[in-house]
Specification:
Blueprint (H helix, E strand, L loop, with lengths): L5 E4 L6 E4 L7 E3 L6 E8 L2 E7 L9
Bound molecules: zinc ion.
Zinc ion binds next to loops.
């Protein structure tokens, strides 16, 4: 069987995430804690996620 989605766990709130196939380096947002997470690694449909610091509101000011 092939996996149509990838699975990962939010490193902040430990919510199980299921997402369409994405590649290393892409980002997604946790629906629970609204953190931006970057894909550090993909192995067998399982994502390794790392929280990314984002400060859009202060950008350029
Ligand atoms: Zn989260």
């Amino acid at each position: 069987m092939t996996t149509a989605t990838f699975a990962g766990v939010c490193p902040e709130c430990e919510t199980d995430l299921t997402v369409p196939p994405i590649v290393k380096g892409e980002t997604l947002t946790c629906p629970e804690c609204i953190l931006t997470l970057r894909v550090e690694d993909v192995a067998d449909g399982t994502l390794t996620l790392r929280m990314v610091e984002v400060a859009l509101r202060d950008w350029g000011q």
